Amino acid sequence: MSIPSKIPMVDLRSQYLKIKNEIDAGINEVLDTTAFINGPAVKKFQAALENYLNVKHVIPCANGTDALQIAMMALGLKPGDEVITASFTYVATAEVIGLLGLTPVLVDVNPSTFNIDVEAVEKHITPKTKAIVPVHLFGQCADMNRLMALAEQHNLFVIEDTAQALGANYNFNGTSRKAGTIAHIGSTSFFPSKNLGCYGDGGALMTNDDELAAKMRMIAHHGQRIQYYHDVLGVNSRLDTIQAAVLNAKLPHLDNYAAARNKVADKYDQAFGGHPKMKIPVRAENSNHVFHQYTLVLQDVNRTVLREKLAEKGIASMIYYPVPLHMQKAFGSERYKPGDFPVTEALCASVLSLPIHTEMTEEVQDYIITNVLELI
Ligand SMILES: *Cc1c(COP(=O)(O)O)cnc(C)c1O
């Protein structure tokens, strides 16, 4: 083995090669049967994911952004309703809130876990608030015990954005629950680089509520329960059968994938823990971590220069996320100003994510560690 000239953030090819037979067989079966839309592989995956997550209903859909939109449509949220979410997240979470004419109310995050700050949520609840969307950022769960209690107290819906934490376990008031199955609805994404990624776009919704499940299924299929009878306005959002076949091959490996990611994270922790210029990821209470990202907080480091130097050594690094949502042009800059969410702003200015994936060799990781320690 040797060090590749370019070390990417994720290595999907090595992962594919290890399970090529399973993947290819699944895809070939779809090709042979030409069951491209809602083929048997989709139903099979739905059942397998329900079983894995121990949840009553999984509703597959086209992507994680659609999943969030379908969830909010199913909850009957109306223009003017306020939905609280974190300013430190991927744009999709807040985007669909705005697209539906709802008002995204952004709040700051916890400086240790990077997840939504429950006290900040509480402060932003008004008579117009209808829902909270916590994001399980980078692979570990938000403080769902306190969030669900708060939601119950104020009669609010909660949608867990689980796009980065599928497979994580959470200790919900003494019972172990899978991320995405704790709130009224969970949403997830199967974007290729996510922990359970397909080979294109894909997503799903999770719920234990029969009525919400029926509504979401209907909305995802043009608002119809019976073909050509449209009871409500819906969307067209299906999980492609070929993608379902890929996911059927990959789901049995998901726990091993999480273990492999944790092994990489532990090694980074050991190498960087206690370093004066780096803060290693803090493990949240009550949640395990599936390390969608391994994200350091840098202190007194010129991040741009460090990234350039790492790139010269062929080492990829990323900033998730460089601009807080409240500072994005698309999100009503007139409602927010710099300084509104100091934790989010400080994180955006100082985080750095390093390559982490299921196939990282010790040799490659040693090379990354040596270079980070030397160049920082
Ligand atoms: C990836 C992601 C999404 C969107 O998923 P897509 O499948 O790309 O639409 C939503 N929320 C978060 C937090 C994500 O990381």
Task: Pick out its properties.
376 residues; alpha/beta; 7-stranded mixed beta sheet; 14 strands; binds pyridoxal-5'-phosphate
- Give the SSE order as H and E letters: HHHEHEHEHEHEEEEEHEEHHEEHHEH
Anisotropy-based shape: globular
Q: Low-confidence parts, pLDDT < 50 over ≥5 residues? A: none
The profile of the biggest β sheet is:
7 strands, mixed
What are the distinct ligands in this entry? pyridoxal-5'-phosphate
Q: Give the proportion of residues in helices.
A: 25-40%
In terms of DSSP E residues, the strand content is: 15-25%
Distance between the termini: 26 Å
β-strand number: 14
Q: Mind telling me the CATH class of the largest domain?
A: Alpha Beta
CATH topology of the largest domain: Aspartate Aminotransferase, domain 2
What's the CATH architecture of the largest domain? 3-Layer(aba) Sandwich
* Helix count, DSSP H or I runs of 4 or more residues: 13
Looking across the biggest beta sheet, what order are the strands in?
A: 1-9-8-5-4-2-3
The average pLDDT value, as a whole number, equals: 96
Determine Rg (CA atoms, Å). Answer: 21 Å
Total of domains: 2
Can you give a write-up of this model?
This protein is of the alpha/beta class and 376 residues long. It has two domains: 13-252, Aspartate Aminotransferase, domain 2, CATH 3.40.640; 253-375, Aspartate Aminotransferase, domain 1, CATH 3.90.1150.10. It has 13 helices and 14 strands. The chain has helices spanning 12-18, 20-33, 40-53, 64-74, 92-99, 118-123, 144-154, 210-220, 241-250, 254-272, 303-312, 342-350, 362-375, and strands at residues 57-61, 82-86, 103-107, 129-133, 157-161, 169-172, 175-178, 185-189, 203-207, 224-226, 229-230, 278-279, 294-298, 351-354. Strand 6 and strand 7 (175-178) form a beta hairpin. Helix 4 (64-74) packs across helix 5 (92-99) and helix 10 runs parallel beside helix 13. The longest helix is centred in the C-terminal third of the chain and has 19 residues, at 254-272. The model has no long low-confidence stretch (mean pLDDT 96). Bound molecules: pyridoxal-5'-phosphate. Pyridoxal-5'-phosphate is lined by residues 63-65, 89-90, 92-93, 135, 161, 163-164, 189, 191, 201, 203.
